[in-house]
């Protein structure tokens, strides 16, 4: 081959390599190993909707769900091709990770409806019991601690309490903020599930603080000193005496 043919070919190859490396650099990171998670969202309200947006931005594949999935079409279209709509059953079936973000009073029924689909899966659950909204079961959950109460409603799931104490407005306004990030408290009994939850907290633009097993979730329940506050990881750890 003449030198005239070789040079353009080399230039083309070099440009292709550069473009590829740029693509890889610019791709949103989702997992340390570069792969993306399949996440089913049950309850795409203020918290579920905000997380859908943040996780779609990180490149994860989502089924966002509603009992009226057609109402989520506009959101799914806005978030991109990797986001589809479905029913709660379809979302739970789709996800290797399932986010459950429903009013606490709906948790017993959601747990029963989805039990066969979430057994063995990583489930992040955000609910807080409020008697005024959720009835008497909220008193029981508060007395028991929401971590243990949720585990009873979602048996078999590899449960992590997550995003329970950050207000939805702060979830949107503080994600990926410059400087020290806002922390999200996590509690769970399954080490791998906690590792997945940590990754998803970071992909959403926050720092994760693992507070302890599910029994310790009560340390950041409604009424605790850290509930509803946007704290850094250092502040959260100090306030909870984790250092
Ligand atoms: N808002 C906050 O700042 C905040 C912060 C931390 C934690 N939390 C807790 O997180 C949970 C979700 O809060 P949110 O503010 O996102 O609530 P939300 O805006 O009311 O959204 C809850 C979603 O749950 C779905 N849902 C309700 N009943 C259901 C059922 N029986 N089966 C299946 N899905 C059902 C609804 O979807 P469809 O009607 O479309 O089916 C709704 O979109 C609550 O327990 C809340 O206490 C809230």
Report on the structure:
The structure is a single chain. By secondary structure, the chain is of the alpha/beta class. The chain has a single domain, classed as NAD(P)-binding Rossmann-like Domain (Rossmann fold), CATH 3.40.50. 45% of the residues lie in helices and 16% in strands. The chain is built from 11 helices and 8 strands. Strands 3-2-1-4-5-6-7-8 form an 8-stranded mixed sheet, sandwiched between helices. Strand 2 (61-65), helix 3 and strand 3 form a beta-alpha-beta unit. The longest helix is centred in the N-terminal third of the chain and has 24 residues, at 3-26. The N and C termini lie far apart (67 Å). The relative contact order is 0.11. The structure holds NADP nicotinamide-adenine-dinucleotide phosphate (NAP). The site of NADP nicotinamide-adenine-dinucleotide phosphate has 23 residues, from helix 2 and helix 5.
